[in-house]
Specification:
The structure holds two protein chains of two kinds. By secondary structure, chain A is mostly beta strands. In chain A, 0% of the residues lie in helices and 52% in strands. Chain A contains no helices and twelve strands. In chain A, the strands form three sheets. In chain A, strands 2, 5, 6, 10, 11 and 12 form a six-stranded mixed β-sheet that branches. In chain A, strands 3-9-8-7 form a four-stranded antiparallel β-sheet, with no helix packed on it. Chain A is globular. Chain B contains no helices and eleven strands. Chain B has strands at 5-7, 10-13, 19-24, 31-37, 43-50, 53-57, 65-68, 75-79, 88-95, 107-108, 112-116. In chain B, the strands form two sheets. In chain B, strands 2, 4, 5, 6, 9, 10 and 11 form a seven-stranded mixed β-sheet that branches. In chain B, strands 1-3-8-7 form a four-stranded antiparallel β-sheet, with no helix packed on it. In chain B, strand 7 and strand 8 (75-79) form a beta hairpin. The N and C termini of chain B lie far apart (37 Å). The relative contact order of chain B is 0.32. The chains are: A mainly beta, B mainly beta.
């Protein structure tokens, strides 16, 4: 079975400060991990993914995420937040060893960047 | 940059009526998906489709739902007899392939907001 948890419903950060949106996962085999962002009244927009290789993954809009196998985490980070980063962020996981090709999405974390 | 498109953006219907939600996946993608998101809740998988067949489906995707690729570009989700609890945002997605690698990434459309009265 595969599951993903986003422990924070909301993250507040001041513009210019670093941000972290947390994600932890559970899979039987190796994980494929994804981050998506959803702006109001819009669809999910792909940010970045980890399949294999370097644990630090760089994605769109200056975001990056670090795969930590020992902590089963894939936290999303950005060194300097912008007000325009305010949105809903979804982490997703797929068990590469499982029979399904469908990722499981987390409940989402609302990021609010204050001017 | 190619993108997934969906129509209509909003649909209001009466309980018991049939609705068809339409999607145009990215042109070179072979795998298609429908998800739904009830207001304020998580994104839930409904069904995946490949080579004119359903590949996977969730327990949500019961007999009232069906999918079809009627031509070379459109991918539709039909809800035969809508219920109040079908009110949600429905997202279509597509991917180039499966099995890891960049081709597995799913790209989502903007969604259709369905309201059942």
């Amino acid at each position: 079975a595969q599951s993903v948890a986003q422990p924070e419903d909301q993250v507040n950060v001041a513009e210019g400060n670093p941000l972290t949106v947390k994600c932890t996962y559970s899979v039987s085999g190796n994980p494929y991990l994804f981050w998506y962002v959803q702006y109001p009244n819009r669809g999910l927009q792909f940010l970045l993914k980890y399949i294999t290789g370097d644990n630090l993954v760089k994605g769109s809009y200056g975001f990056e995420a670090e795969f930590n196998k020992s902590q089963t985490s894939f936290h999303l980070k950005k060194p300097s937040a912008l007000v325009s980063d305010s949105a809903l962020y979804f982490c997703a996981v797929r068990d590469a060893s499982g029979g399904s090709y469908i990722p499981t999405f987390g409940r989402g974390t609302s990021l609010i960047v204050h001017p | 940059e190619p993108e997934v498109t969906q129509t209509p953006s909003h649909q209001v219907t009466q309980m018991g009526q049939e609705v068809i939600l339409r999607c145009v996946p990215i042109s070179n993608h072979l795998y298609f998906y429908w998800y739904r998101q009830i207001l304020g809740q998580k994104v839930e998988f409904l069904v995946s489709f490949y080579n004119n067949e359903i590949s996977e489906k969730s327990e949500i995707f019961d007999d009232q739902f069906s999918v079809e690729r009627p031509d070379g570009s459109n991918f539709t989700l039909k809800i035969r007899s809508t219920k109040l609890e079908d009110s949600a945002m429905y997202f279509c997605a597509s991917s180039e392939s499966l099995g890891g690698g960049s081709q597995e990434t799913q790209y989502f459309g903007p969604g259709t907001r369905l309201l059942v009265l």
